[in-house]
């Protein structure tokens, strides 16, 4: 699947690779919904390829064939164990990166959602980032780079991507499948056009439409409607992000409303997103009670 907005980043990195000017650690602050991991994998393959091109790996050499088969012995992928990337995972990775490359080229590590490194794990990675060893490359992908520890991000080169406009994303989606309406309203929920395409194909988008209607109804009536009481734990994240989108849309529609109320709603929307980001640290929470408290708080903000 071609993602045109990633082309300049890919070509810039491969240009460095082909001239021997590449660094040893890169931060890809590109959400998976925009192809962040797809880009990381492309750059990893190019870095291991025996004859890389401006577009990435050649696809035919032994190294590329091993990578495509997910069987390259010098490429290591790390992702969260549960909600966090833990210190034992990082220590194991750092140990592997000290070994001699089995294919005689580079050793490449790809860390998915590196913002999930817990403090101990992040500190364990620092030495490898500072002294990676010859022929070692680390690619750190992050959905939310602003949440990454400064000690990690400051030791990586940043790969910047110019994200597509909403219109460009709508056009890209329309080229992939037939659309009868603008579906980009939920981009903040799913993360980006790649995830939105998946959501449109697997039924998640319809569920998000239902959540949006449920929140609009609940905020208006002051009572939690049935569609919000019947969601499962996996839908809680979507429900919170949809609430955030609904609140932001209300602000857009009522620009001429009382400025003080709009400020309160803006702060309230930020609180909703803070709750979303804290989900991993909130085990055994009664989310129906959280939802009801949000509805009551909204009522208080808009009627006081």
Q: Main sheet: which strands, in order across?
A: 2-3-4-1-5
Strand content: 5-15%
Helix-strand category: alpha/beta
Overall geometric form: elongated
Question: Can you tag this structure with a few keywords?
Answer:
elongated, alpha/beta, 5-stranded parallel sheet, 304 residues, single chain
General description of the model:
The structure is a single chain. This protein is α/β, with parallel strands linked by helices and 304 residues long. It is 52% helix and 7% strand. The chain is built from 14 helices and five strands. Helix 4 links the parallel strand 2 and strand 3. Helix 12 runs antiparallel to helix 13 and helix 13 packs antiparallel against helix 14. The longest helix has 19 residues. The mean pLDDT is 91.
Task: Please summarize what this structure is.
The protein is an alpha/beta fold. It has 14 helices and five strands. Strands 2-3-4-1-5 form a five-stranded parallel β-sheet, with helices on both faces.
SSE layout and pairings?
Layout: H1 7-18, E1 25-28, H2 36-48, H3 62-68, E2 75-78, H4 87-96, E3 107-111, H5 119-130, E4 136-141, H6 150-153, E5 157-158, H7 166-176, H8 187-190, H9 193-202, H10 204-221, H11 226-229, H12 236-253, H13 259-277, H14 287-303
Parallel strand pairs: 1-4, 1-5, 2-3, 3-4
């Amino acid at each position: 699947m071609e993602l045109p907005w990633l082309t300049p980043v890919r070509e810039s990195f491969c240009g460095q690779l082909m001239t021997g000017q590449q660094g040893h650690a890169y931060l890809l602050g590109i959400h998976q919904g925009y192809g962040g991991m797809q880009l990381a994998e492309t750059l990893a393959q190019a870095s291991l390829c025996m004859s890389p091109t401006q577009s990435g790996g050649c696809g035919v050499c032994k190294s590329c064939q091993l990578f495509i088969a997910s069987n390259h012995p010098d490429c290591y992928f790390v992702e969260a164990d549960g909600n966090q990337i833990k210190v034992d995972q990082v220590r194991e990775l750092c140990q592997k990166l000290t070994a001699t490359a089995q294919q005689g080229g580079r050793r490449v590590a790809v860390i998915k959602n590196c913002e999930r490194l817990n403090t101990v794990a992040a500190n364990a990675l620092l030495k490898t980032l500072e002294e990676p060893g010859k022929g070692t490359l680390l690619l750190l992908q992050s959905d939310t780079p602003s949440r990454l520890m400064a000690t990690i991000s400051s030791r990586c080169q940043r790969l910047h991507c110019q994200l597509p406009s909403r219109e460009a994303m709508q056009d890209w989606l329309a080229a992939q499948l037939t659309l009868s309406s603008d579906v980009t309203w939920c981009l903040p929920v799913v993360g980006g056009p790649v995830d939105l395409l998946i959501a449109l194909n697997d039924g998640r988008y319809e569920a998000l439409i239902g959540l949006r209607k449920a929140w609009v109804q609940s905020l208006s009536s002051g009572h939690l409607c049935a569609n919000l009481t019947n969601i499962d734990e996996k839908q809680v994240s979507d429900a919170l992000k949809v609430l955030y989108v609904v609140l932001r849309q209300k602000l857009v529609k009522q620009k001429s409303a009382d400025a003080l109320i709009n400020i309160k709603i803006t702060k309230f929307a930020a609180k909703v997103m803070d709750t979303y980001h804290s989900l991993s640290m909130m085990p055994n929470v009664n989310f129906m009670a959280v939802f009801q408290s949000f509805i009551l708080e909204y009522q208080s903000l808009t009627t006081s």
